[in-house]
Every structure is written in structure tokens, then in C-alpha cells.
Amino acid sequence: MTTEHHTRVELKARGNAHFSQEEYGQAIACYTQALVGDDEGGAPDKAKWNAAILSNRAFARLKVGTAEAFALAEADCSVVLETEPRNIKALYRRALARSALGHHSAAKLDLEAIIAFEPSNPQANEALDKLRVQVAARTHHGTFNAAFQQQLLDGKVAPLLTPSTDVDGPMRLKSPRQHKSAHSPRHHDRHHHDRAFAEALRQCSLVAHHEAQAHAARDQAVAKAAWDDLQELEKSVTKSTQVRSAQVKRHGQKKNKGQKASSPSAMTRPASSSIKSQTDALWAELLEDEAKTRSVVQTKQKKTHP
Predict the structure, then answer these.
(1) pLDDT above 60 for 95
(2) How many CA atoms lie within 13 A of 12 on its CB side?
(3) Contacts (Cβ under 8 Å, ≥6 apart) of 96
(4) Residue 105 within any structural domain of the chain
(5) Would you say residue 279 has pLDDT above 70?
(6) Within 10 Å of residue 133's Cβ, how many Cβ atoms?
(7) Exposure class string for 51-83: b at 16+ Cβ within 10 A, else e
């Protein structure tokens, strides 16, 4: 083991010690010094070593809890995943960083990738469930409901960082017996967290129910007002139609009375019919006389020119 590598091992150990004492700033500094630089390309297992250190530094930055620290943690994990795309810790910690930054879709992809590699991973499944609750709690304006947002800020719904004394250790799956152990402090914490999570869901449901009732009441009032306006309009149109019909009827009656009293055509209609009959009879007689005259002329012509 070279002197440089021995020094990096010591820096990593010091970083882990600072992390366990919740001295995250000093832990980050130690991890940064423990990284193998680009000018040390000949260092053995450089990529693997740096991946472990970057993952630890990302975890410490998550613990700092500022927006800048979350962004740096996401960047550290992304560097790890460039060379180790199946690194579960890097995927999980990047998902936490992205979720904290509000990048829920990207965080969801990381968690789904973990579950694709390890379907029974409890941390990833739990974080994915909570992330779905966060997304469901968002309003159409892109913000969280105020009442539910407070639950998120209190840590009752947001994905939790689970500190470990073995910072660089693998994410181990817990057996059902470990989960069910009534004497385990972790079981007690988990039970407390589950109750808090259930209460947050209940509060979210109540808020959504009250908002739905408010919307329904407002919509019902608007619908009733519109119906009343429609009824008034219908009455107005009906009344106007009745008045117009009465006016038309009176006008028709006046017109009929005027025609009976003063129309000359009504008085002379029989006379006009009689004149027409006489004219037709006279015209028939003229046609008959013409036919007789034509017959006499034709007879005389035959006698003169046998």
C-alpha cells in the first residue's frame, strides 16, 4: 500500500467518524481530500475508490439539507452512475436529492431503476410510495396544498434519510423477522413513522374532501343562479309571444270586419259571375253561326263547280 493510498484510507475513516458525529461539513472535507485526482491516473482501482468516496460525500451533503448541498449531492451520484449504472446507493441518494430539489419525475425514475434491480428493496419501495403521495398532493398550480405541505416539511411524508453507522456499507435488505421484531428500536421508529405517514394521508384526504365540498357548493350555487335566469328568460319570452299573438289576432279580426263592410268585390261578385255566363253563351252562338255560314258557302261552291 502506497503512502498516498494509506493517507486516503485514513481520510475516509476520519470522514466516516465525522459523519457519525453529525459533523457533516468536516466529513465532506475529508471525503473530498480522499478522492483520487485526475492527475493520478495510475492509481489502482481509481474509479471504484472514487465511486465509494463520492457516494459517501453525497450522503453527507444530503444531511446538510440546503438546496446547494442537494444539487451537489445529485452531481456526485451522477458521476458514480456514469461508471457504475447499477450502483444502488448512488441511485437511491440521487433520488433523495432530486426529490428534495422538486425534480419528482427524475427521482421516480431512479427509484424505479432500483426496484427493477432489487424488487424487494424496502427503502426504494417506501420512498417511491411517498414520492407518489407528494405528486398526488400537488395542485393544478404546481404547488403543494398548504396543509399537506406542512406535513412534508415536518418530514412525515417526504422520503427520509436513514442514517447508518456504516456509511460506506451496502444497503442491506432486512428480513421479515427483523422488521417484525418488537424489541428493535428501528421497528419502533418505523412504526412511529408509519403512523405519522398514515396521519398525513388522512389529513390530505380531509383537505381534498373539504375542497371538493367547497367546489361542489359553489358549482351548485352557480347552476341554481343559471337555472333561475333561464326560467325568467323563458317567462319573458312566453309573455312576449302571447302579447304578439293577441296583437296579430286583433289585427286579423279588424281586417275581416273591414272587408265585409266596404269591399266592392264582395258586393259585385254575383254580378260578375252572371256577366261571364252571358258572355260565354253569346260566344257559343257566334261560333255556331259561323259554322253554318261556312257549310252553306261550301255547298254552293260544289254546285257551281261540279
Answers:
(1) yes
(2) 21
(3) 62, 73, 107, 127, 159, 161
(4) yes
(5) yes
(6) 18
(7) bbbbbbbbbbbbbeeeeebbebbbebbebbbee
Report if residue 264 sits inside a domain: no
Domain count, the chain: 2
Q: Which domain holds residue 201?
A: 184-251
Q: Is the pLDDT of residue 136 over 80?
A: no
Task: Pull the grid cell for residue 35.
Answer: 478522492
Residue 272 Rama label (left phi>0; alpha psi -120 to 50; beta): alpha
Q: Which residue has the cell 440521487?
A: 94
In sequence order, which residues have a C-beta less than 8 Å from that of residue 36 and are 6 or more positions away?
8, 43, 46, 49, 50
Kindly state the cell numbers that stand for 124.
426504494
Distance CA 291, CA 161 (A): 129
Among residues 104, 136, 166, the one where a domain terminates is 166
Query: Are residue 89 and residue 224 in the same domain, yes or no?
Result: no
Q: Are residues 30 and 93 in the same domain?
A: yes
pLDDT band of residue 91 (cuts 50, 70, 90) is very high
Separation of alpha carbons 41 and 99, rounded Å = 34
Query: Coil, strand, or helix at residue 112?
Result: helix
How is 156-216 classified by DSSP, letter by letter? SSSPPP---S-TTS--PPPPHHHHH-TT-HHHHHHHHHHHHHHHHHHHHHHHHHHHHHHHH
Rounded-to-integer distance, Cα 225 and Cα 227, Å: 5
What's the rounded Cα separation, in Å, for the pair 45 and 40?
11
Which residue from 53, 96, 99, 110 is spatially nearest to 76, judged by alpha carbons? Answer: 53
Residues in the chain: 306
